[in-house]
Fold this sequence. Notes:
Shape: globular
Number of helices: 4
Distance between the termini: 23 Å
Number of strands: 11
Strand content: 25-35%
Amino acid sequence: xxxxxxxxxxxxxxxxxxxxxxxxxxxxxxxxxxxxxxxxxxxxxxxxxxxxxxxxxxxxxxxxxxxxxxxxxxxxxxxxxxxxxxxxxxxxxxxxxxxxxxxxxxxxxxxxxxxxxxxxxxxxxxxxxxxxxxxxxxxxxxxxxxxxxxxxxxxxxxxxxxxxxxxxxxxxxxxxxxxxxxxxxxxxxxxxxxxxxx
Length: 198
């Protein structure tokens, strides 16, 4: 398991803490290393960013990226891409600032376009970027599901309580739920699924 730990709210959910404990490698986005070492006592595999929010005692871990065209989360993703790592779980990317939260969530679509197999885990649920088709298997009937459209058309779904259509606003695809153990969502283009822990 390859984890990128962003510098938002440090995870509190036991699921995420277990993920951090069991990870093959943890890449911290700049200042996230401070919280990671404080909470775990461990040294991350690497720290990626411009170094503007890292304690001096942790600077020896820094893989410094000077360019300012992307944020530290994207720099960490590209660092792993250079290592040939494409399957990545992102933690700590929400909280603290809502503008950063929205920006980080929307970047999931960009990472999918680049070829990453990526998920973003929060203390409350998981965001999954999708292209054309998504199959969610082995879930409980009643599992809440929200769909956020990023320009996709021709939405169809099986196993959902409420019908889907070509949403033009983000709120329109929220608060749906599974009525079967397997849900399939199809569309032409990119969309994002959010599954709260249930």
